[in-house]
Design goal:
disordered N terminus, 24-stranded mixed β-sheet, mainly beta
């Protein structure tokens, strides 16, 4: 018997043992059981089609995660719930649905996120009412970048005539990681004017200690962030509502999230010989210093295995001359308006937003540009402004067999003049100036003085102006046929007309490139949707769906001079176009046994043409975007919930995905028949919940398991690009201390398995500077959480 099969059997037996123990625990009181059953049969309502419907009525695959589930399962960030979804993968945090990854990037941008109707990727789940995940292309109602699906985050809104103070505190400790994570949130709901005006404010503050430690600097990687969200609800009339919103979000990090298990076998050592006639007073050469081929990079460069004073595992040890940093902040202002009755014909709603976004940080390039013989780094400092508007009208008569939605959407992002998009530096001194002159074949110090009046600056990327905008008009209509005792049939059609336009003027100067580049372009098109569904009763539906999606085209920046001779440089074009997605889907949804078992199943085929993908140029470290190749993704998805007894419930979700290229794609080194990257061929989620009475208090216990199949992270695959299948178990418990206070305990990775969830070789050839990126599944970790709500 293989070791993997043995481990799976072992963990399965343990799982069964825990479930048996749960089953023999004390049952809850009859009244609590009755309440739980009433909640179970309640219809789940969603707004996926921008109107309120039951999840069974909507002819598409949808998952809806409620506020109660978010708290019970200790979901802090959207990434936490992605692992529970059928057909989902998130190797580096970004959700990938139905196998639509496209290239070698773990963040392909194939799903769109809307928060309260605004295209805004707000992932923190504090004070969130529910999250809806819409699978498959959503190009008609949700526009660009929704080719794999759309995530809808609906936050809790101000409540009239009810004071509420709420929050949570938690601490987390992970095995083999120094320090503790913390997460605190606090919120308040304030009625200001009876039945007219209310304010809701929610804030969150967190700090994460990450496992990676830099052996050169001794610094441990960590991140921290915060946000504050304010919503003011004004209801001047019973059928009219205004919501004024403001969000400020900040994030900072230092160090890397990725490990590096490369074994360079040696390193370059600079040799500088004083020579008054040589540039900067030194003749330069380099020696290759061999080290044990079994030593990983930190031990090789620092001369031994025990390279840190504290006990840090090799897998969490990296070597960088400089610790990288990253920071971003967003200020988002929004206005939502709803009017329920316009001339007795339609309801009208508007959602608009304006935001200012800034990001910056430091990228260490000492390894790639200087072979760690001297320090060189890039400082990033960029900002943009974005404005969005969506106006829609919907039919007023909910009893009419005809239901329709029409609207328009406008989105413009402006990147103002910025002379400081990127600056590259090298450290000062004659020795480094001589080394840089030798290694780069250009006098970087002289270039810095001549171009920038700064001897330590050697390259600059700047922007004169850039913008991109989209104007779309959409319509969606349904007609329901009453078939009497046989139920009803719904026919649905949708269309979106989009017009894209963009302009970019950038400059660069210094040792890598000297460019003044102006690019612009326009593009327009239509995206369609058709569906037919049959509902024999309120508890069953079956449907067929055809839907289309797209990601917008755009402009590439200038090609750096250092990339001119790269083998892939010849494929670069100034402009790339939108890709095209065609989705064919059949599904079945149902609720049986008085609502104690609900399920949804879907089978789909997705045809993908003109794939938009990032092309990495191995010889120079830069990327560009290109269209290339075709692919097909086929799969099965199943999600279900079951109330097994009055006090035991189960969730089971599973999927199978086969996503592959259907023609050669030289730009990404892909061949016909190659599996798409980042896509496990299966995933599954199984959870059991049991309610008990402990010490006179209501309590709940939960055990869950997530399983992923194997997948690769790169075409032209190396062994360091292959991720093995793995399973992980979690255990949690919650007790209701009082009507206002809940205390919970969460143990993730219960059996402390050491699995990899992402790894990728940066280069296709083995060199002393090539990273072997790797991210491990967190080791066993324990979280204590306290939630409180006071009215």
């Amino acid at each position: 018997m293989s070791k993997k099969l043995s481990n799976l059997m072992k963990t399965s037996l343990v799982c069964c043992g825990v479930i048996t123990a749960l089953s023999s625990a004390q049952t809850i009181a009859e009244e609590s059981a009755s309440n739980a059953e009433e909640e179970q049969v309640e219809r789940i309502m969603v707004t996926a089609r921008k109107k309120e419907e039951s999840i069974i009525e909507v002819p598409m695959a949808i998952s809806s995660i409620s506020a109660m589930e978010i708290v019970d399962r200790n979901y802090i960030d959207s990434q936490d719930l992605y692992r529970t979804l059928a057909g989902a993968a998130a190797p580096r945090g970004e959700l990938i649905l139905r196998g639509l990854s496209g290239g070698n990037s773990s963040v392909p941008g194939t799903t769109a996120t809307f928060t309260d109707g605004v295209p805004f990727e707000f992932t923190n789940l504090s004070d969130v009412e529910r999250v809806e995940v819409l699978r498959g292309p959503q190009g008609t109602l949700y526009g660009s970048n929704a080719i794999g699906g759309t995530i809808r985050v609906i936050t809790k809104k101000p409540v009239m005539n009810e004071f509420e103070l709420f929050g949570s505190m938690q601490g987390k400790a992970e095995k083999s990681v120094a320090g503790y994570d913390s997460n605190m949130s606090l919120g308040i709901n304030l009625p200001l004017v009876d039945d007219t005006l209310a304010l809701r404010v929610n804030g969150n503050l967190y700090n994460n200690k990450r496992p990676m430690v830099n052996a050169y600097t001794g610094n441990q990687s960590e991140s921290d962030g915060n946000f504050i969200r304010t919503q003011l609800l004004w209801e001047p009339a019973d059928d009219m509502r205004f919501t004024f919103g403001y969000v400020r979000e900040e994030y900072d990090s230092e160090g890397t999230t990725l490990g590096d298990r490369s074994k360079p076998g040696g390193y370059y050592e600079a040799v500088l010989t004083p020579d008054a006639d040589a540039p900067y007073g030194y003749d330069v050469s380099e020696n290759w210093i061999d080290c044990d081929a079994n030593l990983e990079r930190p031990a090789c460069l620092l001369g031994g295995e025990n390279i840190l004073d504290r006990n840090v595992k090799d897998k969490y040890t990296v070597y960088d001359l400089i610790d990288g940093t990253y920071n971003e902040q967003t200020d988002l202002f929004s206005l939502a308006f709803e009017y329920d009755n316009l001339f007795d014909i339609a309801s009208v709603s508007y959602v608009g937003s304006y935001r200012e976004y800034e990001e910056g940080g430091l990228d260490n390039w000492s390894r790639l540009d200087a072979n760690d013989m001297f320090r060189t780094w890039i400082i990033n400092d960029d900002f943009e402004e974005r404005t969005t508007h969506e106006l829609r009208f919907q039919n007023l008569d909910v009893n009419s067999p005809i239901s329709w939605t029409v609207g328009m959407f406008y989105d413009k992002t402006t990147e103002p003049k910025n002379p400081n998009v990127q600056w590259q530096y090298h450290e000062g001194g004659d020795q480094v100036s001589a080394l840089a002159n030798y290694w780069w074949g250009v006098d970087a110090t002289a270039t810095g003085i001549e171009e920038f009046n700064d001897a330590n600056r050697n390259w600059n990327s700047a922007r004169v102006i850039a913008w991109e905008k989209e104007l779309s008009f959409f319509a969606d209509a349904s007609y329901t046929i009453d078939a009497g005792d046989m139920g009803e049939i719904e026919l649905n059609a949708g269309i979106r007309r989009y017009d894209l336009e963009d302009y970019s003027h950038t400059t660069s100067a210094g040792i890598w490139s000297e460019d003044n580049v102006i690019t612009s372009g326009k593009e327009s098109g239509n995206r369609l949707k058709f569906s037919a569904s049959y509902r024999p009763s309120d508890n069953f539906s079956t449907y067929f769906l055809y839907s289309e999606g797209y990601r917008p085209g755009g402009n590439n920046g200038p090609l750096a001079q250092s990339c001119v001779n790269d083998p892939k440089a010849g494929d670069k074009k100034d402009r790339y176009t939108s890709d095209k997605i065609d989705n064919y889907e059949v599904g079945f949804k149902g609720s049986v046994f008085d609502g104690n078992f609900t399920f949804a199943a879907a089978a789909y085929q997705i045809d993908w043409t003109d794939i938009k993908t990032d092309i990495y140029m191995d010889t120079c470290g830069f990327s560009y975007t290109a269209n290339g190749g075709e692919a097909v993704s086929r799969g099965l998805e199943f999600e279900s919930t079951a109330q097994l007894t009055n006090d035991i419930s189960m969730v089971f979700n599973a999927s199978y995905t086969k996503s592959e290229l259907t023609e050669d794609n030289d730009a990404i080194s892909g061949k016909k028949g190659d599996d798409m990257t980042m896509v496990p061929d299966y995933n599954a989620y199984l959870a059991f919940d049991k309610s008990i009475e402990a010490f006179g208090k209501q309590a709940y216990i939960r055990i869950d398991m997530t399983a992923y199949g194997a997948y690769k992270t790169h075409f032209k695959t190396l062994p360091s690009d292959e991720v093995d299948a793995y399973q992980v178990f979690n255990l949690s418990g919650r007790v209701e201390v009082s009507d206002s206070v809940q205390l919970s305990l969460h143990i993730n990775n219960l059996f402390d398995t050491e699995d990899v969830k992402y790894k990728n070789a940066r280069s296709r050839s083995a060199t002393s500077t090539a990273q072997q990126y790797i991210e491990y599944l967190p080791e066993r970790n324990l979280t204590v959480r306290l939630d409180y709500t006071f009215f």
